[in-house]
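quick one, two chains, predict together pls
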Amino acid sequence: MKFAILVNEGPYTHQASDSAFHFTQAALEQGHQVIRVFFYHDGVNNGTRLTTPPQDDRHVTNRWSELAEKHDLDLVVCVAAAQRRGVVDEDEQKRNSKDANNIADGFRISGLGQLIEAGIQADRLVTFGD
Amino acid sequence: MLHVVNKSPFEKNCLESCVRLSQAGSCILLIEDGVYGALFNGEASEEIQTCLKDRKVCVLGEDLQARGIESDRIMSGVEVIDYAGFVRLAVEHPKVQSWL
């Protein structure tokens, strides 16, 4: 079965990203396909590679990046939400004349159309938020 | 339909709304702070009891454990499941509604 996942909250404040991660992992373990994980609203904060949580804590961003690499996941960050919150890739850096970028490995910035498309193509869209 | 409730009934009325609007044959899954809804003699125990007549009610074991809630404090009839069970419920039900 094809799943799409929507994450609406950032890491550490809410459990949404953790729940979404564990659900995604469990779905993949059962042989299901996760066609896209879309990060919207504060959820875009999951996609910055500059986070450094304490060593004995989970690394939410790296965990997503590693899962994406292992299973070839499509992690998409909403562009408008990302611009508001300072989550930047190389293209956005150039386009908005910023001095740096911070997108984490395995994440890409794109538009809301990607959420709609995932909702149409997937058999189930599961939302995690607050 | 699979209804996912992630708010404590002590804090928000999501579970109450979900119970009121969900239909017979559907399933209500309590996750995150929503697991407090499964407590025996808790804020939502009457509503859950009503639900159990014609709906399935499940609670995520990992989130119970994270909050120090032992399974003997959970209402009888409420099924404790894991993330794999969550995925299976999502497969079984054609729609998944999160009550955010």
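Chain B touches chain A at residues 4, 6, 31-33, 62-63, 82-84, 86-88, 90-91, 95-96, 98, 100 (CB under 8 Å).
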